[in-house]
Amino acid sequence: MSTEVIVPNDLWEEDDEAVITSWLVDDGTSVSEGDMIAELMVAKIQYELLAPASGTLSILKEIDDVVAKGDCVAKIG
Amino acid sequence: MTPSQEQEIWMYQHMVISRFFEESIEKIYMEGKTPAFNMAKGPIPGEMHLSNGQEPCAVGVCAHLNHEDIVVSTHRPHHIAIAKGVDLMKMTAEIFGKKTGLSGGRGGHMHIFDANVNFSCSGIIGESVGVAAGAALSRKMQGKPGVAIAYLGEGAANQGAFHEALNLASVWKLPVVFVIEDNAWGISVSKQASTAVKHNSDRAVAYAMPGVHIPNNDPIQIFEKAGEAIERARRGEGPTLIEIETSRLAGHFMGDAEAYRPAGEKEHLTETDPIPAFKKRLQERYQWTEEQDEALRAQARETVDAAIQFARDSEYPAPEEALEKVFV
Amino acid sequence: MTQVKAKNRKLTIARAMAESIAMEMREDEKVFLMGEDIGELGGVFGNTRGLYTEFGAERVKDTPISETAFIGAAVGAASDGMKPVVELMFVDFFGVCFDAIYNMMAKNTYFAGGEINVPMVLMTSTGGGYSDGGQHSQCLHATFAHLPGMKVVAPSNAYDAKGLMTAAIRDPNPVIFMFHKALQGMGWLGTEKEAIVDVPEEAYEVPLGKAAITREGADVTIVGITSGVHHGLKAARELEAQGVSAEVVDLRSLVPLDRETVIESVKKTGRLIVVDEDYHSYGMTAEIIASVSEVGVPMKAAPQRVAYPDIPIPFTPVMEQWALPSADKIVKAFAKMKETEK
């Protein structure tokens, strides 16, 4: 049973897209709920993406990929 | 020293050109930088420091200058360059990094140099003051006319170079005027948090020169006070320090989220935009009509658009040209 | 059942620097910060993120634009028992405050016969490649490394960044900590994936003065620092496709300089390419080559330098990108070396 890691609607104010500037955990490693797992940049500001659940991370979107609010960037299983 | 109608219209016109220019540059700067803001991308890469709101500081002073006078500016130079008469096409081409730019693309937005009108910049805070003092020294030594104007921000008034240059200019009675554009913010640090005195103009007494404080970004007041200072310098009576409380409508640099600005500050600033205020003044004093305004704006728009088109159409230099012009 | 990798945590260099400073500040109340926009803003390059919130204005001090004053003040404070970490926002700004750095910070211990320590860290941003022009894009490695009395370190990745910063803060000597803007992980200056690496949560030191073999090889030694290391690694991968095995040495420190590691590597490979984003003449590349040749290491071909030309850094991208060192230039340098081989 896996949890999707969705870019939260309230992570930043505007409706602009973001770009992933870092993954702070390797693909295939275990994460705990609340861990900071990635940084997303909107204009020049970076926002922290936290793990919504504990488990093994499968990264779906890479660094430099453009993502929008509501996009699924990874799964935690 | 009140401005004539002609001078007022000249000032208004250059404020409008300046603003149209900055607004156009702002849009173009963002090309290629969304959604991912990578500073290196787009037709105008690198940093960008816009002068929206600070136009009065440029026109009020430059209205008294001719091509022989010297202006040394900062990393936020566009409005001053425009008022000084820098070749707008070549300046725009320089900002775009084209071969037809003022320095063939070597300088970019922070390093606008136009020898024809004695205009230069420094990207290093505070370094404009010494250079301007030196230009003034040169004219004095050669017995040639001309005053030098050093532009700096209020943050630069805390830099050692400022104090040394003011002292030197005073001791040697140099024909230089120091103009502080106080926009209250040095990136994220407020003037109050960083400056020991309330008004930098009060520091003038330490250097035995007049200190003039202009509290409200009013182009007419700036014209009057700058005029007095420039005349003083031309008469050989030495330097003056002018401090203008202006408003920085944009962020420090493009991409600046300005989270450090207190709530409501930006909205208040937009209400005090100097351009609509000047239009109102022209209407009241000279019965400035909507037709006249439309015509002035249309011409300004044309001037800016032509400069941008020139820049876009121009070619980039050959890469190896980077090795040229290091020495002459 | 798939093998799950143990929990790991990566950081960007910016976060690693901030984490190291935070941990040292928790341990030692003498450690404090001074610099421009390093307070609430968290530093223009993200390296003091969170520190103001945790430690407050007393220990995280935003300064006026007065480098000579606050860097001079850091020297005075450090000489009196404090441990300042100060930021010179861009290394290019050293011109306005260099006396406090090279004549006082670097020499006071010597003038005092070792009786006075100056335990301060001066962190400063370096590097270009994103069109910031001649006064905001320099590296100036040699300028600082050349002058006696100050240690100089520069990480290429987050693991080294945290370890070097911790070692620097704990070192009783003055240390210049140079961080390359494009490697910070700030996104708006581009992204360099390989700088974002696993960083242990506990405190640890990376010793000052010790280079690292980032990639082992047999046919050529590529020596670099900060961005040069990443160009070297990319070049090594290209060379591998050509059947050439390249060893990449990350100096990590310029002062002290780990000449032994470089010498041992060139003894093994017999070929040397040095890459540096700083200016070509009178610099790091010359120092490495001189260090190897003066001890008589036999080389199969003349050593090569890939460095920035001796010009002010131009703004326009066609010129700037052409001038910068790159993996491609390293690969070409190797080809050139092979042509001249006996």
Polypeptide structure, described:
The complex is a heterotrimer of chains A (77), B (328) and C (342). Chain A is mostly beta strands. Chain A has no helices and 8 strands. Chain A has strands at residues 3-6, 18-23, 30-31, 36-42, 45-50, 55-59, 66-67, 72-76. Chain A has a 4-stranded antiparallel β-sheet, with no helix packed on it. In chain A, 34% of the residues are buried. Chain B is of the alpha/beta class and 328 residues long. Chain B contains 11 helices and 8 strands. In chain B, strand 3 (148-153), helix 6 and strand 4 form a beta-alpha-beta unit. Chain B starts with a helix and ends in a 15-residue tail after the last helix. The N and C termini of chain C lie far apart (56 Å). In chain C, strand 2 (31-35), helix 2 and strand 3 form a beta-alpha-beta unit. Chain C has 2 domains: 10-198, Rossmann fold (3-Layer(aba) Sandwich), CATH 3.40.50; 212-339, Rossmann fold (3-Layer(aba) Sandwich). Chain C is globular, with a radius of gyration of 20 Å. The chains are: A mainly beta (77), B alpha/beta (328), C alpha/beta (342). Chains B and C meet through loops of B and helix 3 and helix 11 of C.
